[in-house]
Amino acid sequence: MAGICFNELLAKGVKKLSQAGIKESLIDARLLLEEASGKSWTELLVHGTSQASSAVAEAYLTFIKRRIQREPVAYIIGEWEFWSLPFYVCPDVLIPRQETEFLLETVLKHNSHLPGVVDGPILDLCCGSGIIGVVLARELQKKIIALDISRAALKVAGKNVTRHNLQDRILLVQGDLLEPFGSSHQFSLIVANPPYVSNDDVRHNLQPEVCRYEPHLALDGGHLGMELIDRIFSGLPRVLQRGGHFFMEFGADQGDFTRKLFNTRLKGTEGFETLTILQDYSGRDRVVHISRTT
Fold it and tell me: Which ranges carry the Methyltransferase small domain (predicted)?
């Protein structure tokens, strides 16, 4: 394709995405043009009337076609911003979401006024792309164990650990939830973002971008989305040290289920007395905080 400027390319992409029913058509078209051209948005604004090369135009329109098929922008460009940091992503890992930023904000806020929270080992449970472990390692200046069952996800996490120069602070471990750890591996802080979507929702109720492209292994939490959470709660007495804290992200409709599960599995046993449900900025139940008495 010859004789087309960046402004015209952008307009063409926005039109195609809008006609396909993509809601954020302008934002998506802009990000894809930045990736195809290798230029920042500021550069594209300044040089909008400059002619794009045929290679750039072809690459851009290929990206647009992929987005029309509902492939997420993050997977098309191969990275996504989280905590104002760039992270590699691909269909082997979930795309970072705002809910997980709220989880981390909650952890760091509590750490600032709860003495001794990070005096011992720290676990990033169900680490996926490694975003939680990377942020914790940077913010707390502590060593982290990051665990996931998926070898493919751990490869992505390893790339992100290297990207942020944290190889000496983050140890990646493959395993199924808390099973790799015996009573000799106790943590002062566990931060978890497990699969918590019900298997029925995974099959029938997710957006095409999610159900077609994001890894079901990282989404499907079984019946009601609570099966893996149940297993995690059952293992906490073995791995959360006295005086330790556990934070976990869950679905907005799972607050009552989480309370009931805590009462059934943990409350009143071995120092587990307190559960707090925290609401996100939309007022929805989003994070559970469990502390263990000394």
Answer: 100-215
